[in-house]
């Protein structure tokens, strides 16, 4: 059977390249692939009310409804309806860690549950003083935002931590009842843990299989995007999918499982999807025509074969595509890897590589290292957490100053809208939240005005929570419509009040919270992403240089462990670059200074992906030492120009005969930087002229006043 190699490993034989003893044929690059239109974040009807691409979240919706109804009903029976709300919210642990392997998820969800208990304890301890409670909710929002981002806890992120903390401030009782509130929240968290883990009894390896299958599907989308204007965007999405699959598969490698044949098969498939992605990158940047649809359909079929080996497509379907191709062409290499991936998928099991299999990486980085790196000056996590904490605290304090009793809803709304990210997305989310709440309040008031027994109220709240999770991936506006009745039901159960008064207060609190969230996004660290963008491009170029020098150096061949680290670090830097740019481009009104950098970002990304593709070759063609030195100097000049915000004085690039597209992208990068600097200079001149004109007007007004 075939030996399975970990990601980045260079096999000693059995290469997937058509002729491993010779370099891959690289055609001369005469035409550069078209640069995609830059991302655009807008406040318009489509952004507010249109549905995002993707499917409906049926599975998580059902889990959320089951977890809430079970925990809510159990807490009502054991502790009474007024504190049962804490159990219902505590059960929302089921919304976290949806994609991770069950072994890792069991520990992660337990920590999330402990976090809920801690937040409930903080809210209950500060409930005696509303001003202190408002500050404590803000502190919880800031700290949890930091922890969620530093530890890569996916959405809903800090929202439900803030929600349980806020609701606990109105739970009946005093400091003596804090243990009771914590116990109720722990009960709900335990129910959510059980519902989330229940699926593992039937499909214990489903998360890993789904992640690899999603990577193949995104690869199919990349193959369809070759030769189209959306190439750069789909390339980024494919890279994210591959990186996510590697993380999830790595998290699943427990001591007893990683040496098993099924685990070896899954790693083999993941290696192939990673290598096919890089081969597709080479093809995408060397042609302007679309590939035949058979290639993308074949990749889609491989996604199904991850979990169903018997449905693996026949590699003979690719024979028609190979006709007329040079044996060592980039397209032939791509189709060869697709065929080899099908051979790996057809086997239900693979022989493991032996006891003590090395994966060249830890399943997850050390905890303290992740927290420490999130506090560094170049990290976006620190300003994001500070923005969240300060805004939520001030929003609650402002509500108290205005005499609003339910100030905590202002804090909760501010938390929800600030999770959008940049200014434009925050404005969209604020409008969606306000409009959705107006409609949801009407629905909630109608539900509460009917004399429903508690046995009907519990499943009603669970149904609204399920509907919220069903639609929230597609549009936050429709999710807000469903979320508001659920929140009204829980708030009315915890603190019964007249329905009309509760509905009016909910509308006012939502509007104030939305305004507070927008103000926080505009006033606090608005340019954090834009200020870090040049340094992020520098990081990509520096890592790309390291990879290229390692690939081209004829005297040093990186081993499997170093190859894996190089590939991991560069892919992570490329994904981070696009994320920072997407955040910066929505930080209006200063986003105009970021827009000219889009061609720079694209050229840097393409150079990085081409370096990754070269790293994936078994025997990449080397370069002379003089060429390596000149290449190093060229990267030095590009990096210095970015840091100093000046036009690069690049001169003649070293000629990389075997890698012509890398030369092309470096030239494009230099040209894009020159254009961006020129636009910055023109913008600075116009700003200087406007300031001078304002000064002249002011001076003239003073003269007129004297006369």
Q: What does this 3D model show about the protein?
A:
It is a single chain. Helix content is 68%, strand content 0%. The chain has helices spanning 45-49, 58-79, 81-90, 102-125, 130-150, 159-168, 178-198, 206-225, 231-251, 261-284, 293-305, 319-322, 330-346, 367-374, 381-401, 407-418, 423-449, 454-471, 476-494, 499-523, 528-552, 560-585, 598-615, 625-644, 660-706. Helix 3 (81-90) runs antiparallel to helix 6 (159-168).
Question: What structural keywords apply?
Answer:
transmembrane helix; mainly alpha; 707 residues; disordered N terminus
Number of strands: 0
**β content, as a range?**
under 5%
- Secondary-structure element order, N to C: HHHHHHHHHHHHHHHHHHHHHHHHH
Tell me the number of helical segments per DSSP (H or I, 4 or more residues long): 25
Largest pleated sheet: none
End-to-end gap: 98 Å
| Overall geometry | globular
Structural class given helices, strands, pairing?
mainly alpha
Rg: 28 Å
Mean pLDDT: 83
- Give the low-confidence spans: 1-25
Helix content: 55-70%
Main location: membrane
Region (Disordered): 1-28, 675-707
Keywords: Membrane, Transmembrane, Transmembrane helix
Protein name: FUSC family protein
